[in-house]
Description:
The chain is built from 4 helices and 2 strands, in the order H-E-E-H-H-H. With 130 residues, the protein is mainly alpha-helical.
Amino acid sequence: MSPDGAGAPRGQVVTAALLVVAGVLVLFVPAGNEGTVLAPISEGHGLSAVDAVGAALLTVGGTWLEVLVVRRLPYLALPPRALFGLGLLAGLGVGLLIASVFSGFFWWWAVGAALLGIATVVLVPLTARR
């Protein structure tokens, strides 16, 4: 990537997106095939070795993708209201994903993932453009 952030090479965006997809696929492994829980988090939630691998892939890919998007934001020419709305969606999505682990209502993760997914689907293709 260029030092001024003007260009986010498509290869970097694609690689980061593939890491995110790989992490999500690993996290979709059924609980019966994950092995023992290494660290219990809350009722019905725990971290296994398979979860740790999926979370690591998702964290590396997601952080890399976020850095690419943030460095490219000035060049996307989005109006301030659109940026605010996308930031609100992404923040709410991440918040609901985290809160779903510690709350009694298990399906909040789906709402959070949908909100974060909308922001991602809008910003990532714009970032990959030259």
